[in-house]
Structure formats: C-alpha cells, structure tokens
C-alpha cells in the first residue's frame, strides 16, 4: 500500500485549503478553548511541546501522552464536525474515490484480523458493534465472513449513517453514550479516540454495552511509533482539531484498565511509517544531516532495506499504527 493510494496528492491540496478555512473559523473563538488534565492519566502536569496551526500540543509530564491543550470545548467540536468543509470533502470525495483501494488494502485485512482475534480469545460471536463506522466498509466485510449473527454500526453523522443504511447495515444513528444497546460480544472502533474531547467517558460507555468477557478492539496513532516520533510536528497526522489525543501502548493500556478492561494484546501492524518519513526527507522537509542512519536506511538502501525495516517496526511495537485488544473484566 502506498500513501498516494489512500490520500491522493491532488485531493489533499484541496482538503488542505478547506481545512485552513475550518481552522480559521475555530481560531476566532480560541479564547473559549478549555484546559484539561492528561486524557490518559489525568495528571495536571503537562509541558508545552510545540504549536501547529494555532493549536498547542502539550506532553504529559507523568505518562508522555501528547494532547492539544487548551482545546475546543465539546460543543465547539460537535459544531466543527457538523459544519467542517474539509470533513465533508473527505466524505464526498476522498473516501468514495479511494474506497476500493481502502477496501482491499485496509478493510478486508482488518475484518480478517478481527475474526482471527475473536477466535484466538474464544469470544462468543452473537453480536459485533462497530462505533464510528463511517462508510460501513468494515462491517460489510465482516458480514461477508458470516461469523456473527448480528452486526450493528453506531454512527452519529446523519450522512454517513444514511450511507451505511443504503448498504443494508443495521444502523444506530447516535453517539455511543446515547445508543440503547447492551450485551455486545465484540466492540470495535478504528481511529476514533484520538478525536474525542474526553476519551475516558467514551471508554466507560463502551464498557457498559459490552458483555462480560467480551472483547473490545481499538486502533489509534502511537505517539511513540517511528514516524510520529521522528517527524513530531512535521507529521501530517499531527493535526488539530481532528486529532486531540496521542496515546502510546503504556498510557492507553493504563486508561483502559481504569475503565474496566484487561489488555490482552498490543500490536502495531503499520505499513507506512518508513515510507512517510522517506517522503518527508525527499521533499526536503526533514533535515537528516545529523541522522546518517536514516539516510542510509530510508534513502541509500531503500530498495533493499525499506521493507525489512518497516517489518521490524511493525513486529516490535514500534510502528505508529496501534491496535489494542482488551477484555471486559
Ligand atoms: Zn498522563
């Protein structure tokens, strides 16, 4: 998989323009942003790390989680998600145009991986719930595998919920906090908690609808992964207000434990870290004059070492794409 396949450069230029407009609009109310403690360990001690597009990214002094602080309020965020032109552009253009690639490269393997994990942990396969289902592509692939008796998607955005309904999926158009549901055997959510004002509330709500022994699987960026750690603020993934929280395996595991989950597996099956850093080097955006190892691995020996290096990162929990599998205690 290449980054260009899922984020075509020509679309991304337009998306960038619209995002700048969205942010300008939000920054007009910057004086209303609120300070929060660390979203992972709730410590009040955090220090300024860098500022990007007007957002301050602070690092928790206790657990090294990176997070936007101060941040837009819950209401401002929900308004942003309703009115954002850049998000609408993703939903109207980028996602549909790249859906086939995303299906093959992301959702088919993702569905297989989830089923594999369910088998590994011997979970009952009556009901699976996917939260923040987007286009519903993941759940379509789950249904094709014919393992679960009931598959439900929870999607608060009216447009996306409608897309899921048209695909014949069972949809609850709501947030998880308001969804009337219980007894789920498996809950999944992909790249969601980094967007949330206060992830702990969301995790508690998930814990409530999960049955005892049920499996809760989530993915999110790993701030201690290779490309995020190497690029820092240069990373395109570091973007407010879409991404507010950047956990790592330890900080997220601790938060999950507080919310009643037992962590049973931590994985970083990322495929793009090395390529993303390489692209930044080739574009002249990352100075590697003092990093001969990066030049050697990602430029000079790319053809023979690039893939091996990426595999090493993925296999040793050093990639920026984090999966955590937990069970309800
Ligand atoms: Zn912390």
Automatic annotation (TrEMBL):
InterPro entries from the UniProt entry: SAM-dependent_MTases_sf (IPR029063)
Gene Ontology terms: biological process: methylation
GO molecular function annotations of the record: methyltransferase activity
Keywords: Methyltransferase, Transferase
One matching Pfam family: Methyltransf_23
Name of the protein in question: Methyltransferase type 11
Native source organism of the sequence: Candidatus Giovannonibacteria bacterium RIFCSPLOWO2_01_FULL_45_34
